[in-house]
Structure formats: C-alpha cells, structure tokens
Design goal:
20% strand; 12 helices; seven-stranded mixed β-sheet; alpha/beta; four-stranded parallel β-sheet
Length: 379
C-alpha cells in the first residue's frame, strides 16, 4: 500500500512493477484520508484502518477475479485543493475508483473533481448534503446526509427541554449548513438558535454571551482540539453555566484524543455517531479485528471504512473494473455491511447516490467512566 502524498514518474513505474511481478496486475483503488494536521488525524487513522482491513480480507478471499486489490492512499490534510489534486493524480495512475475522506468540504472538492473526470467516487464518511453542485452518477455515499443526522440531533435537544440554542461556530460551508439545518428545524418547533463567532470571541467572552442570551445548550461547531477544548474548559469552570448542556453534533468527542485532552470535562457532551444500537455478527467480528489493529475501540469511522471497500469490491466483482460500469452499478448495490444492508438510491435534495438509512445515534461519554459511551437517542 502506498501512503505517499504524491508519486514521481519513476516511483509510479516502480509501483507498477511491484504489483505485477508476483502475478496478475492489481486492481488499483485510490483512498483519500486526513493523516496530518489540520485534518482530524485520529478520524483519518480509523478510516484507514477500516479500509485496509477490508482490502486484506478481499485479497485473502481471492481478490477481484484473482487480481489483488491495491489501495493507493493519499493524505488530504483537510485541504480541498490537495484532495482535488490527489483525484487528478489517482485518475492518471489508472485507479478503478476513489474512496474515503472524512471532512465534508474536502470530500465535496474530491467529488466535484471525480465527477468532472469520470472517476467513480464512494464517499465514506462526509455528510454535507451538497456533496456536488449538480446531480451525478459518478458519486455514491455511505454516511447519512447532514440534514438527516442533524435533524435527529435537534429532536434530541427538544426532548431534553433545550430550545434556546447557541452555536459557537467558525467560517465553513459545513458549519454554516449545520447551523441552517438546526435553525430551520428548531424554529418550526418553538426553538431559537443564536450564532457566536468562535474566532472573534475568547472563551470567557463567549461564556458571558451565553449567560446574556439565556442559552440552554451550546453546540460546538468548531474544530478540535482548538478552539473546542478551551471553550469546553471555560464553560465547565463557569458556575453561571452549570445547567448548560454542551453538545458537539459533528462528533469531536468520538475519538480518544478528546478524552485525553479533557477527561471529565469532555464527558456528557452529546454527539452524532453512525452505529446501530447493537452490532450483528459481522459487525462484532469486524469490530474485534479493528480493535486489535487500532489498539483501541474502533469508532464508527473505522466501520465506514470497512463497509466502503466491501461495497466497492462487490461492485468490482459483479460489474468489472470499467469506470462507467462501476458508476452505473451504484443503484443496483445490495451488500451486507457491518451496520446494516447497504443500498443506494436517489434522495430528494441530494445530488449523489445515497445510502438512505444508515443508523444514527446521539451518544456521549459517560461521566462515571469516560471511555464508555451512553446511547441517549436513536433515529
């Protein structure tokens, strides 16, 4: 597996030789993963673990018609331009398809470029509704659309009696989209949303604003560890905000880094997670192997990675490696994944082929045992 961000012509030739000297030419698949800052590197590590485990299983079962599956990994570092350039490079290397990515804005850039080049792209973990500007046959997605997940989160807030919502946010298409979804959904049910600019306000000034607005919940629509962790510490230490619910719908508390940074302060902060209440036998088996590989409990992102390669492998086996044939197969996919039966369809308002019903949970870290998660709400 190649993990370099780019390959020279000599490196490409060497890699091509490596994949043919031991037998049939490999079926190449490009993988976009955030492995360096400012990307959420722990998410990238989990995504890559899932992708890699599934590739190993495919090859252990005979590959794609006797040809090994080869993953060409490119680090996006959460940079949309870098992701687009990686799609260009991977297309030139002859990949059958591109998979992966965690960050929505980065995945949008990759999807746009894949659509323009006619390269199938199976997006693993990004949720932004507008993954492409126009409907496309080339892109399919496993993660639930942001509208669905964040509406479920808004319903959870209302169920907790939290209807005066403040969002600490930073400039981003993703955060702006999330704010709009929350505002529209809550306004129709008597709730309000006020925006607080996390780039302009210090954590202490932000706490003052929360008091002034009478907020009953603060949602962290910001990056982590900065500025999310300082904001959490400031809120937790402010006695005026003792009854305030702090939430993070984008999933910052999912990863061990959050617990290491914040400990008890980071517990009791609800976030979205895309897992069923109980994994079936396949999910349990894959989860155990991912835990061994990661040395820690796998996040939902690791399961998304495994499901991505498993779905693509089935398409490659049944429809071949021609790019147009792969893209044409998305509507016909029916694959048992770790989190349910995966099939793609057209969803109103979504321009890509979408797994319409991935499981959605609202969970938090248990204050009594911060490495344990509590399921608070399902949708």
């Amino acid at each position: 597996m190649s993990t370099s961000p780019s390959l020279s012509g000599a490196d490409q030739a060497e890699e091509g030789a490596d994949r043919t000297e031991h037998g049939a030419a490999a079926v190449r698949v490009g993988a976009l993963v955030p492995l360096t800052r400012p990307g959420w590197t722990e998410a990238g590590r989990h995504l890559l673990a899932g992708l890699s485990l599934a590739v190993a299983e495919v090859n252990g079962a005979g590959g794609i018609g006797g040809r090994p599956l080869e993953l060409l990994v490119r680090d996006t570092a959460a940079d949309p331009e870098r992701a687009a350039a990686a799609v260009d490079e991977l297309a030139g290397l002859g990949v059958a398809a591109v998979v992966g990515e965690y960050h929505s804005v980065v995945a949008r850039s990759a999807a746009t470029r894949a659509d323009a080049l006619g390269v199938p792209y199976l997006c693993s973990s990004a949720v932004l509704d507008a993954l492409t500007e126009q409907p496309t046959e080339w892109v399919a997605r496993l993660a639930p659309a942001q509208t669905r997940g964040w509406r479920i989160y808004a319903d959870f807030l209302l169920g907790q009696g939290r209807n005066r919502i403040a969002v600490a946010t930073q400039p981003s298409v993703y955060w702006a989209s999330g704010t709009r979804i929350l505002r529209d959904h809550l306004a129709a049910r008597g709730g309000t949303v006020v925006e607080l600019d996390a780039n302009e306000l210090t954590p202490q000034v932000l706490c003052d604003a929360l008091v002034d607005h009478g907020a009953t919940a603060l949602l962290l629509l910001v990056g982590q560890p900065e500025p999310a962790a300082p904001i959490v510490r400031a809120v937790r230490s402010d006695r005026r905000l003792a009854e305030l619910l702090v939430g993070a719908p984008a999933g910052q508390p999912e990863f061990a880094e959050w617990d290491a940074l914040l400990g008890e302060d980071g517990a009791g902060i609800p976030f979205l997670r895309y897992l069923p209440e109980r994994l079936g036998p396949l999910g349990e088996r894959v989860g155990k192997e991912l835990r061994e590989q990661l040395g820690a409990a796998p996040s939902f992102v690791a399961f998304e990675g495994w499901d991505t390669v498993t779905v693509l492998a089935e398409v490659l086996r049944s429809h071949g490696t021609d790019r147009a044939a792969i893209a044409g197969a998305w509507p016909h996919v029916v694959v048992e994944g770790t989190r349910g039966t995966i099939r793609f369809s057209r969803t109103p308002g979504i321009g890509v082929l979408q797994w319409a019903w991935p499981p959605v949970q609202v969970v938090d870290r248990d204050p009594a045992e911060t490495d344990r998660f509590r399921i608070l709400h399902t949708g």
